[in-house]
Amino acid sequence: MPVEILNQTGKRMVLAPMRLALEAGLRDLNREDASLQVVILVSDEIRALNRETRQVDAETDVLSFPAPSLPGFENWLGEIAISIDFARAQATIRNVRVVDELAMLAVHGLLHLAGWDDETDGDRQKMVDRQNQILTSAGLPTDADWHSLPH
Known about the structure:
By secondary structure, this protein is an alpha/beta fold. The chain has 5 helices and 4 strands; from the N terminus they run E-H-E-H-E-E-H-H-H. It has a single domain, classed as Collagenase (Catalytic Domain) (3-Layer(aba) Sandwich). It has a 4-stranded mixed β-sheet with strand order 1-2-4-3. Helix 1 (about 15-30) links the parallel strand 1 (about 5) and strand 2. The protein is globular.
């Protein structure tokens, strides 16, 4: 189950909870054979990526880039980009550990790679429920009221 996590921040951080969460998510989605990459960025980098890919000139917490449907890429889910700065801010507001917020963001990104959407309140709640189910199976903290904070 190849989960690659790239820390591009230049700072040391604990990544084991994020890896556990992603592996639990892949099992939950019956995609143990799939691989994905997570890149942890600082705010300026994720803002540039958001501007370049979505034409939104703002920092965000997590971006997901599903793999193309091409022969030979059936087991490649795609890439997830997470802002460490946004994760730290959200963790402070929620009064949780940064490693737990990173795990939640990673699972949120994974669900987007798997086709989940959170554009409506109902879809958002279903997605949060699934995130929490995955985090529980990984032995990590959950948050029934979790949502991306205003960007």
